[in-house]
Structure formats: structure tokens, C-alpha cells
Write a structure and sequence with these properties.
Shape: elongated
Structural class: alpha+beta
Low-confidence stretches: 117-127, 157-162, 344-366, 458-469, 491-507, 613-617, 640-647, 870-875, 1168-1176, 1279-1292
Helix content: 55-70%
Largest sheet: 13 strands, mixed
Distance between the termini: 53 Å
Number of helices: 67
Radius of gyration: 39 Å
CATH architecture of one domain: Alpha Horseshoe
Number of strands: 17
């Protein structure tokens, strides 16, 4: 049996071998040292027992590793640094490193030149390889980063003196970051970032903050620019670190690039100028990005709101004749900010619960959390004169300047009137100027009127008309068909019957001769057997505009015009049904209008349902022919080989109901026309008498073989009253496949949004039934229930019948907040408290312990998503489907349109040696509930398998009917292919639930994984619907807020309020705990019970004081959210007014509150340290030590000359001459450059003064012999040095 070998003892044995002398050991030293590194990594990263770690952290091991840093080979030095880095586990080991002087050697490694070998008279030095030196520098950076991580951040005040970061090392990091090579600069800046986060004051003293601010605009570091900016925002937020950023000086560098008098733009006369031009433009883009990031954070907004000069200069420069590139960049900043608040709140209207408590019930949009931020942003922009400047620019002749300014003025006006009280003061002058009649001021009147007109219609978004006009002709034709053949969802457009009456009145005035001409030239009567000669434009004109007149209608009945036309549409004729589904849709419109016309009266209904000879002598009615088609297809599905009804076995058109044909032929219109019959009582009678629902129920199979027909059908029925259509829909939900049930649930969501009059009586029971099904279906139903129960009547009916245990189970699976939201209803609280024994008390305690702090992360996530809304939404999805051109105010109508479209997918599988295969995919639609997104899901009826080791390429194309479309759903002549290459590393791939998912541009290729094969499961194409218009941030539910809305719930949580109050008032409470307490109090304060108790406790005064004066800036933002929650109650608004905070109501944004003196919110109190922040606090201690050491060490003239020369090397002007002088002195007096005392004084100088990386490298190179031999240890171990070190409060 093999014995276990102690890794630490194994390392000690290898160290013993390395300590031996001999050429063989020297040659094997790198390999042995590398083995030591591997074992050490296993010990520390594998978390071995503490005894092994402590054995490796002993002083003698550390001294041995430190001595290896004196090796002449860079490879050995990098191994030594790596070894010492692994030993860092806590601050105690950092103190040991300080005592042993490890930081001196790390500083030396940071200053080594990676370009070439160090030139020295030592032959071993000449054999240095640049790649090893570069690795040494890289390891030194990693070592410094590890040291900084163990400091614990700027809030950690428990550091011992010996564990703080050495300034000599900080100086080395700053010098390196300022001038290192391109390949190391990224690592240097990231380490400097850690320096700023963990030791901000030291970083500032060393000049690191300045380097970070400058490098945020460095083109080569654009990928980490955001990280740098967020580091600086962290420093701005912390009171103890804020003074490291100099107000009016540091961040102004980002703004100054926009205000340069003569920027290097458009001067690309040669390659050099072109390079400068490109660099400036790159810096401009990064500065723009940094400013946007700063303004989208509370700490950044408050900081710039207090120090407004930088932001004001940025806006004021628009008045100047600046370069177009600079102006466009400033416009980009304004667009990014203003567009956040100019998205339509197309979410579902809900009844505001607090308004009910105040005795007024009305419908309000979902309270938008983003408005709390926007109100302060807009106020800052207005105070920087943005409104005035946009007014000036809007009147200029240059459209490149005035056009964007007018759009911004429109958006700013919208935000002003929605968010800011008494904002009319900004517009009074313009309105007065537009209304004045002074003949000498007509130019002013004209100009002002134009500007007012631009602002005045801010509520009507006309700025996107240009984009809307770019809709494809194909989609416009599809839309026209959809709007002409309106079926399914209720519509908010003008009632179609009213339109018919109006048209009927116009028809009386129309020339009868025109009607007769159209009737004749349609050729339906003259050439009834040759429909290819028919003029369909004339037929459509007749059906739309003339046949609503009773006399003309009766005439077309008598002359068999309508009968001949109806015969054309018989499925068995194979005339219309086999046509390709592509423009023009005139026959489809005519068929719909014809059936609609005939269903209006008894004679017309008899024509539809009774046998007619027609021009082909067919002995069936239209409806009978359709029933025969469905029966024949039903027999095919059920697999009947024989039947009593022989006519049901075959039908000429039954093959067109197959998925591929159904998505490409006009047969699908017959299915949608069934919905026409459900729109009237007489039409429903025809359907019931023919038994069509019985036939259609046979289509409902678990296999889902005819789901494509059923889904189309359920979107065509009218559900406005109790009928067979509702019964059939219920049957689909109860017995359908998972795909069909999910489609039905999506349709229930749309019915709710369409305000179906008795929705809560009918649909709620259906949703409850779906909760009892599989988890997959239950979770889908849950997502719909979350929306529909926002309505109180729906919620009460739901609570009466739901199984609360099953609901809780589903909520826990998907982390739904529905259970918590139901606590705000009296019935909900009683049911949950009664049926879920002990759940509420346990849940409240869980929220107190952890969920209140987790709630902060949820809020921050939704806010971050909203603040990145514009850029992320534009880039996330490759496919974008436009809203309806003629009904763009109703996104739900567009969703109904999407479901009616005949989607199909074709997949070309290139399998290498196995050849190619073209596969048709059945397409279904998944609507997650967000108003601007739907998913096309493609699945194949056959297995598509690949060997996991073989290469394969999938090429996907999406069609609508027979039309090829691109990613904007415009008609194209060739297929628009999306390629999925298994070996393409640019694709994002991951494994989830034993499925391989390859993601590309919002398209998911999902494969089931088996031992050696992959099988295509489905393809999901995420499609953004219309322009990105919904930027509403719905506040996540909070259990304490929901409980507070009922008296019983409030009594349950009352005992916890003192805990939150103490957390807010106590100065010793952790930051996150204080924030979580603020959110809890804010939500409790939304109820009449909660605000009453908060007022009695006198807490509002504390909250106002925190919002105006708290030193942590981001917490002021949280306080603002809290106060805005409190101001939703009338009592809360009255209390806030006592402390000079005013509340403002707007129908679009709800209640908002701001201080009367807006500067109070942005004011940052200057600390006593502010005036001293540019000085290093320990400078006097260093000089005291320097004086004491001088009294011990008496220098000769040469040594004084060396000191003077090195001091001149800190100046870039005198550096070259000083460097030459130092080299000359070294040649003349080499023994002076081996003097330990002199070198100690030089180290003190390097610690105190800022030297460039090049200067430090030259200095260290001249004294390299001290680093190489044991003489360096004298500085660390000699009593006089130790005595000096003990006397300083912070070791250098």
C-alpha cells in the first residue's frame, strides 16, 4: 500500500536539493523550482490542512524564496515571485514580507526592461531572454494584485501598520502603468485598479488615480474602460475615498476633450495626422461612454450635480462652432440619456391599490421606478441650460444641427412636463413670443411658433415616422390582409358595422352606372366558368363599397353574382385553396368579405349552407365541402382504412392541411374563415348544425399532429359571448398537446389585454385548471396569472378556487413573487395564512435575515437593465418585426398579427461526408409576455442527428408563406441564411439540462446530447417586436410592503418595524443592512397603516436628512426611492411637505417627490481633509527619518554628487543629462554604487519622489550588484535600519 506523501515535506526536500552546490543543480534548478510551484499550488488552492500551509509560511522558507529573487536568471526570479504569491493567505504574511523586505525586490522586478536583456558585465546577465523578463514583470504584477486583495478594501480600518501596501511598490506600479509596453499595460492598469479599490489614499499619493482617469480614454484599453470608470465611481461613493479624486480637476479631463479649441480632427493630410485624428476620435468615443456611465449612476449624477461646471461646459459648447464629430458625440450623450424616459409605457394598466385606500379608484400605468432617477437627471440638465441651448439650436438653418436639437427638445419637453412641477417657467418666454402680434417682431414670432410646435406635440411620437415608412411592401400587404379580415381578438378600432353604415350612406350618392360598370367588367357573370378572366380589383371594390346597399345586394343574389363567386372558393374546386400564400392577397380579401356579407341575412346564410349547382354543378354547399375536407383529413389522421361515409375518406384538398403545405398555401384562410361564423348567433347555429366542432375536437391529439391548424383556429374565433367557441377552446386546454396548451395560454393573455368583458368569469377557471397539469404547463399558466391577477376582480376569483399548495410549489420553482403579491389582498392573506400553516412567519423571518438584502440586488438588476436599455435592446436581437403600420399604438394587435402569419423554417444540414439534407421545421410561437418580444420555435417531425465528433453546418432560413424574408422581415429574392457552425468559436455555446445550446445573434440551436450523437431538439429565434418602446421598471414585490396593505398583515409585521428603524438610525449598521431597511420602510409606507406608524415614529425627518446629507452618495438614491414610495399616500405627502419636499402627480408617472431646493440633494459636504488631499500624509515622517539617517551616514563628495544627479532624473527636462552624468560617475567610482548606506538613501528618494519607469530602471540597473549579492540584506537586517523602520508609522 502506497503511503501518503506530505506535500509540504516534499517541497522542503526539493528546497534542500536546490540549496546544494554544483553545476548539475544549477542546470536542473528551473525544473526543480517549477515542480515546487506545482506542489505549492496544490497545497494552497486545494485547501490542504492548516499545518502544511503554516509549515510553508515559516520565516526560513520565506527568506529562502526572497534570496531566489537575487538570482541572475529571470526565469528563477519569476518562479520565486510566483511561490511567494501562493504563500499570501492573510495580512499576517504580508507583515512578514514587509519585515523581510520582499517589496524591494518586487519593485525592482516591476521596473525591468522587457525589450532587451539587461546589459551588465556579468556574463549570466547577457544570457537573459526577454520572454522570461516579461514573465517576471507579469508575476510581479500578480503578486502586487494578491497583496492588494488581502487589504480588504478602503473600508477596512483594522490593518496593522506592517501590512499596508508599501509606497515604493505603489510608485513602481504607477510608473509602470504610465509607460510600460502594450502587452503588459492592460495587466498594469488592472493592478492599478485593484490598488485604487483597496488602498485609495496610497494610490492617490502615488499618482495612480490620475493614471486611471487618463487611461479610461486609452484606445488600447477600450475593453476595460468600463471597469476603470466603475472603479472611480466606487471611490466617489465612499466618503473616505472621495477626496482622492480632486473636484473640478480630475474628472474634468473627460469633458475637456469636447471643449478643445483646435482638436486634431479633419486634418488627415498625411499618415501622421491621420493617426492623430484616429486616436482623437477613439478618445472622444471613450470619453463619451465614460460620461454616460457616470451620469447613469447615483454617485456620478450627484457628484456632477454638485460640481456642475464640467457638465455645464459640455452642454454650453454646443453654442460654439465646434467640429461635427464633437457635436455628434455630445448629441449621442443626450440621446442616450433622454431616450431612457421617452419610451411608451405599454405595460398593462392596473388599479393603484393606494388610490383605493384614499377613496378614489382609477387606472394607472405601472409605477415606473426609473422615473425617480429621471426626475433628478432632468433637473440637472435643465440647470445646465440644456433647454435654452436646444431652443437656440432648433432655430438654426443647418439641419444637421437643428434636426437633432428639435428631437431632443421634444423629448426633454416630454420629460419636463411629466416629471418636473412648475416647469412652465422654461417655456413662458417661447409661448409669449409665439402669441405676440408686434409687427416689428414677426421673425421672432415665426421662429418661436415653430419651436413651440415642435415641443407642443411631445405626447405624439412623430420622430419615428421615417423609420415606420421603411416597412417592406410585403409586410404592408400582409398587414392589409390582416386588418381587412379582422378575426379573433377584440379591436379598439372603429366598429366595422359603423364603417359599413357610413359607407352605405355614401353609396346612395354614388352613380348607379358605376356599380353596373364594375359588375359587368368583373366578368363573374359573363365568364363564370373561366375565373382567370375575372377582374379581382373590381370584385373587391364591389364587396367593399357597393354591396352594403340592400337593393344592390339583392340584385347580386338574383343574378347569381354572389353564388358564382362563392363557388370559386369551394375547397374541392382547388382554385383558391392551392394558391401560394404570397402577395397579392386580393382573392383572400374578397373571400372574407363575401362570407361576411352572406352571413348577415337569411338568404346569404342559405347560399352558404345549402346545395348549389354553381358553374361546375357541384352538389354540395360551401360549408358541406369544408366539412368534407376536415372529415377526410380526420380519417387520414386517425388512420381509418375504411369508413361508412366513403366521401369522408378522400378530398382533393386534404393534402394541403399538412404542415408544410399549410404554411405556404391559401388553404389556411379557410380555417380562419371558420371564425367568421362564430361572430354572430346565426353563424354559430350553422357551425353547430354541421357538427364542425365535433370534427375539430378529433384534431386535438397529444401528438399535436394538427396543432398548426388548431392554433390558427383559436386565434380566429370570436369569444365575446358564451358559445361553442369557448367550449372548444376549453377542450383544447384540457386535452391538447403541450404546444397547443401553451398557445392557448398565450391567447388568454392577449384576451385579458383586449379587455374581454367577462374574462374573470370564464378564463380564470381555465388558468386554475392548467396549474394542476405538468410543471411545464403550470409555469406557463403561472406567468399569465401573474399578469391577470393585477386586476382585483380577477385576483379575488382566482383566490376563491386556487389550490394554494400547488401555487406555492410552482412559485418556488421559478422564484415567482405571485404568492407575495397576493398578500396585499384580504382574501389572499387569509387564505395563505390559513392554508399554509407557518409559512408566513417563516417567510417573514427569512426576509429579515437574508431576502431583504437580496431584494437590493433585484432592484439594482432591473434598474441596470433599464439604464442599459437603449444599447442592449438594439444589439441583442438579430430579427426585428415592425409594429402594425396602421395600428402602431396597440402592440397586442401586432401580436395577434404575428400569430396569423404562416411561418415556416427550412434547415439545410451539411453533414460533411454524409452529404446534405434539407429539412422542414414546424413553427410555433412562444410569447413570454413582454410586449416587445416573441419567439419562433422550429421543430422537425423527423430526427436530425449528428455524430458529436464530426463537423456539421446548419443553415437556417425563415419564410412567410412562400416568401423569403430577411432579419427585418422584408421580402428578398434569395433565402436569408443564418449559419450555425459546430466549430465556430465565435458562437456562444453551453450545456444546460443535458442539452447543448449554441447561441448566435438571439437564435438558439438546441441539441439533445447522447453518448456519441447530438440530436436537434428545436431552434428558437428571438424576435423583437417593433421599436423598443417599453422601458418601464416595475418594482419587485416586497413582502413587508404587501403585508402592510391589509390590517391583519400589518399587525403581523408590526414587531419587525423597530428593527428597520434602528437599522436606519444607527451609524454602526452595515451599509447593505441600512439599504435593505430603507427599502422595507419605503414599501411599508405605501399603505395607510404603515405611513401612520412611520409618522408617529418621526422617521420621515430622518429619511429627508439622509436623502440630503448622507455622505455615501448611492444611499441618497435609495432614500429618494423610499421617499417616493411614501409620497404615494396623502399622509406621506403632507409629512414630506413639512420638510420642504414637494409631491407632483402625473397620469403617466404617478406620484413623484423632490426637494423644493434641488441643490440640497446634490450638495456634497467638504471634509476637513479636502484641503490637504494633494499632500502625502507621511512626507514629514520620511524627511525626519532621512535626517536621522544622514546623521548616521556621512557622505563624501562623490556620494553627494550621485544623490544630486539622481534627484535630477525625476525631472523629464533634466533626465537625459542626469542619466549621462550618472553613467559617468559609475565608470569613475564603481565602488560607490555598491555602498549599502547610499542605496538606502536612494530608496527613500524613490519612495518620496515620482520617477518615471525608465528613470527607475536606470537607477536600479546602476545598483544591480546590491540586488544580486547578499549586501542588500544589510538594509533589511542591520540594527540601524530596523530602528528607523520601527519609528515610522508606515514603512515605505
Amino acid at each position: 500500500m502506497q503511503q501518503h506523501v506530505d506535500p509540504s515535506m516534499q517541497i522542503l526536500k526539493l528546497i534542500t536539493i536546490l540549496n546544494q552546490k554544483g553545476q548539475e543543480v544549477v542546470e536542473k534548478k528551473p525544473a526543480i523550482f517549477n515542480e515546487i510551484i506545482k506542489i505549492t499550488k496544490q497545497v494552497f488552492e486545494g485547501k490542504q490542512d492548516s499545518q502544511q500551509i503554516q509549515r510553508l509560511q515559516q520565516d526560513d522558507i520565506i527568506l529562502w524564496a526572497r534570496n531566489q529573487l537575487q538570482d541572475s536568471k529571470a526565469q528563477i526570479r519569476q518562479y520565486a515571485i510566483k511561490f511567494l504569491r501562493y504563500l499570501i493567505t492573510d495580512q499576517k504574511i504580508l507583515g512578514i514580507y514587509r519585515q523581510k523586505g520582499v517589496h524591494y525586490f518586487i519593485a525592482r522586478s516591476l521596473q525591468r526592461d522587457c525589450k532587451q536583456s539587461t546589459k551588465n558585465d556579468n556574463s549570466n546577465r547577457q544570457q537573459q531572454q526577454p520572454q522570461y523578463i516579461q514573465q517576471e514583470v507579469l508575476q510581479a504584477l500578480k503578486f502586487s494584485n494578491k497583496w492588494l486583495e488581502k487589504l480588504g478594501g478602503c473600508q477596512n480600518q483594522n490593518l496593522t501598520t506592517t501590512s499596508k501596501f508599501p509606497k515604493i511598490l505603489g510608485n513602481a506600479l504607477v510608473a509602470m502603468a504610465e509607460s510600460c509596453e502594450e502587452q503588459l499595460k492592460r495587466y498594469a492598469i488592472l493592478t492599478l485598479r485593484a490598488f485604487a479599490l483597496n488602498a485609495p489614499e496610497m494610490c492617490s499619493w502615488c499618482g495612480g488615480i490620475r493614471i486611471l482617469i487618463e487611461n479610461a480614454m486609452e484606445q488600447s484599453l477600450s475593453d476595460i474602460s468600463d471597469q476603470i470608470v466603475w472603479t472611480l465611481l466606487y471611490l466617489l461613493n465612499e466618503p473616505s475615498a472621495r477626496t482622492t479624486i480632486r473636484m473640478y480637476l480630475d474628472l474634468s479631463k473627460w469633458f475637456s476633450i469636447f471643449t478643445e479649441i483646435d482638436p486634431p480632427i479633419d486634418q488627415a493630410k498625411n499618415d501622421k495626422n491621420r493617426t492623430i485624428n484616429n486616436k482623437f476620435e477613439a478618445n472622444l468615443q471613450l470619453a463619451k461612454k465614460a460620461i454616460i456611465t457616470v451620469l447613469k449612476s447615483w454617485q456620478g449624477l450627484i457628484y456632477l450635480g454638485d460640481e456642475r461646471q464640467a457638465l455645464k461646459s459640455l452642454i454650453q459648447v454646443l453654442r460654439q462652432p465646434i467640429k461635427p464629430a464633437i457635436r455628434n458625440s455630445i448629441y449621442d450623450i443626450l440621446k442616450s440619456l433622454l431616450s431612457l424616459g421617452n419610451k411608451e409605457n405599454v405595460g398593462v394598466s392596473v388599479v393603484n391599490r393606494q388610490q383605493q385606500q384614499d377613496g378614489f379608484i382609477g387606472e394607472y400605468k405601472i409605477n415606473n421606478l426609473l422615473n425617480n432617477y429621471l426626475v433628478m437627471l432632468v433637473q440637472v440638465l435643465l440647470d445646465c441650460d440644456l433647454f435654452k441651448i436646444l431652443v437656440e439650436l432648433s432655430g438654426l438653418q443647418d439641419q444637421d444641427v437643428s434636426g437633432p436639437a428639435q428631437r431632443f427638445l421634444k423629448e426633454l419637453s416630454s420629460l419636463m412636463f411629466n416629471l418636473i412641477p412648475d416647469c412652465h417657467k422654461y417655456t413662458d418666454f417661447l409661448i409669449a413670443a409665439a402669441n405676440q402680434n408686434d409687427p416689428f417682431l414677426q421673425d421672432l414670432k415665426s421662429w418661436s411658433s415653430e419651436i413651440v410646435n415642435t415641443m407642443g406635440n411631445y405626447a405624439f411620437d412623430n420622430t419615428n415616422k421615417k423609420g415606420r415608412n421603411q416597412i417592406s411592401k410585403f409586410l404592408y400587404q400582409c398587414e392589409s390582409l390582416y386588418l381587412t379580415t379582422k378575426l379573433g381578438l377584440p379591436t379598439h378600432k372603429i366598429n366595422n358595422e359603423t364603417v359599413g353604415i357610413i359607407r352605405g350612406q355614401i353609396e346612395q350618392e354614388t352613380d348607379q352606372n358605376k356599380f353596373e360598370t364594375l359588375l359587368s367588367k368583373s366578368y363573374v357573370l359573363e365568364k363564370k366558368e373561366d375565373n382567370s378572366k375575372w377582374n379581382w380589383n373590381y370584385i373587391l371594390d364591389l364587396l367593399e363599397n357597393y354591396l352594403n346597399d340592400e337593393s344592390r345586394y339583392q340584385e347580386t343574389i338574383k343574378n347569381r353574382f354572389l353564388k358564382n363567386l362563392l363557388t370559386y372558393y369551394f375547397p374541392s374546386n382547388m382554385q383558391f385553396c392551392k394558391m401560394d400564400w404570397k402577395p397579392d392577397f386580393i382573392q383572400a380579401k374578397c373571400g372574407y368579405l363575401l362570407l361576411k356579407l352572406l352571413l348577415k341575412d337569411k338568404v346569404g346564410r342559405e347560399i352558404i349552407s345549402s346545395t348549389t349547382g354553381g358553374y361546375l354543378g357541384i352538389a354540395k354547399s360551401y360549408i358541406q365541402d369544408l366539412i368534407s375536407l376536415l372529415k377526410a383529413d380526420n380519417s387520414y389522421i386517425l388512420g381509418f382504412k375504411s369508413s361508412i361515409d366513403q366521401n369522408a375518406q378522400k378530398h382533393a384538398a386534404q393534402h394541403l392541411l399538412q404542415p408544410e403545405q399549410y404554411s405556404q398555401k391559401m388553404i389556411r384562410e379557410y380555417i380562419s374563415w371558420i371564425g367568421l361564423f362564430s361572430c354572430s348567433k346565426s353563424g354559430q347555429t350553422i357551425l353547430e348544425n354541421t357538427g364542425i366542432f365535433t370534427i375539430l375536437k378529433d384534431y386535438i391529439l397529444e401528438s399535436g399532429i394538427r396543432d398548426h391548424v388548431l392554433i390558427h383556429l383559436i386565434h380566429s374565433f370570436d369569444y365575446g359571448k358564451q358559445s361553442q367557441a369557448r367550449i372548444f377552446f376549453s377542450h383544447c386546454l384540457e386535452n391538447g398537446s403541450n404546444t397547443l396548451i401553451k398557445a392557448c395560454l398565450d391567447f388568454i393573455r392577449l384576451l385579458y389585454r383586449s379587455e374581454l368583458h367577462d374574462f374573470n368569469i370564464w378564463a380564470i377557471d381555465l388558468l386554475i385548471g392548467c396549474l394542476k397539469k405538468s410543471d411545464d404547463i403550470g409555469l406557463k399558466a403561472l406567468s399569465v396569472i401573474e399578469e391577470v391577477t393585477l386586476d382585483i376582480e380577477n385576483a379575488n376569483r382566482f383566490l376563491e378556487k386556487v389550490d394554494i399548495h400547488r401555487l406555492l410549489q410552482l412559485c418556488q420553482k421559478c422564484e415567482s413573487q405571485l404568492i407575495i403579491m397576493l398578500l396585499s389582498h384580504k382574501k389572499g392573506f387569509e387564505k395563505i395564512n390559513k392554508d399554509l400553516n407557518g409559512y408566513l412567519l417563516n417567510e417573514i423571518e427569512r426576509w429579515k435575515q437574508s431576502e431583504c438584502e437580496n431584494y437590493i440586488e433585484k432592484v439594482e438588476k432591473v434598474m441596470c437593465d433599464a439604464l442599459e436599455f437603449v444599447s442592449s435592446e438594439e444589439q441583442q436581437y438579430l430579427f426585428k418585426f415592425p409594429l402594425l403600420q396602421n395600428n402602431n399604438e396597440n402592440p397586442n394587435a401586432s401580436i395577434g398579427f404575428v400569430y396569423k402569419m404562416p411561418w415556416s423554417m427550412l434547415l439545410n444540414c451539411e453533414l460533411g461526408s454524409e452529404g446534405n439534407e434539407l429539412v422542414y421545421l414546424n413553427v410555433t410561437i412562444d410569447y413570454p409576455g413582454t410586449t416587445n418580444l416573441f419567439i419562433l420555435v422550429g421543430k422537425s417531425d423527423k430526427f436530425i442527428q449528428f455524430h458529436s465528433n464530426n463537423t456539421f453546418v446548419l443553415k437556417l432560413q425563415i419564410n412567410v408563406g412562400k416568401i423569403f424574408v430577411d432579419n427585418q422581415f422584408k421580402e428578398v429574392s434569395d433565402p436569408h441564411l443564418i449559419r450555425c457552425d459546430a466549430n465556430d468559436k465565435r458562437n456562444k455555446s453551453y450545456v444546460k439540462d443535458n442539452q447543448l445550446i449554441i447561441e448566435k445573434h438571439g437564435i438558439l440551436f438546441i441539441f439533445d446530447q447522447f453518448d456519441s450523437t447530438l440530436r436537434l431538439n428545436q431552434i428558437k429565434v428571438f424576435v423583437r417586436l417593433g421599436e423598443t418602446k417599453n422601458n418601464t421598471v416595475k418594482m419587485p414585490a416586497h413582502i413587508f410592503g404587501e403585508l402592510a396593505f391589509t390590517e391583519s398583515g400589518f399587525n403581523l409585521l408590526k414587531n419587525y418595524i423597530d428593527y428597520f428603524v434602528q437599522s436606519i438610525r444607527s451609524p454602526d449598521v452595515a451599509f447593505q443592512q441600512k439599504r435593505s431597511a430603507l427599502w422595507a420602510i419605503g414599501h411599508i409606507g405605501q399603505s395607510k397603516y404603515g405611513i401612520k406608524l412611520i409618522r408617529e415614529l418621526g422617521l420621515i425627518q430622518d429619511l429627508v436628512k439622509m436623502a440630503e446629507q448622507y455622505p455615501v452618495l448611492s444611499l441618497r438614491g435609495t432614500c429618494l426611492y423610499t421617499l417616493n414610495l411614501i409620497c404615494t399616500t396623502s399622509m406621506g405627502r403632507k409629512e414630506l411637505e413639512k420638510f420642504q419636499w414637494i409631491s407632483h402627480l402625473n397620469c403617466n408617472s404617478g406620484w413623484l417627490c423632490i426637494p423644493k431646493n434641488i441643490y440640497q440633494f446634490f450638495y456634497i459636504r467638504v471634509s476637513l481633509q479636502e484641503s490637504h488631499r494633494c499632500y502625502w500624509a507621511l512626507q514629514e515622517d520620511i524627511w525626519d527619518k532621512y535626517s536621522k539617517f544622514q546623521s548616521y551616514f556621512k557622505m563624501n563628495q562623490t556620494q553627494k554628487k550621485i544623490i544630486d544627479t539622481i534627484s535630477l532624473m525625476s525631472n523629464s527636462i533634466t533626465y537625459k543629462e542626469a542619466d549621462k552624468e550618472l553613467s559617468s560617475l559609475r565608470n569613475q567610482k564603481p565602488e560607490c554604487f555598491q555602498d549599502v548606506d547610499l542605496f538606502h538613501l536612494i530608496l527613500m528618494m524613490i519612495t518620496f519622489y515620482q520617477f518615471s519607469a525608465q528613470a527607475k530602471n536606470r537607477i536600479f540597473s546602476n545598483f544591480d550588484r546590491i540586488f544580486t549579492y547578499q549586501t542588500i540584506n544589510i538594509i533589511i537586517e542591520h540594527p540601524i535600519y530596523q530602528q528607523l523602520q520601527c519609528q515610522e508609522p508606515l514603512i515605505i
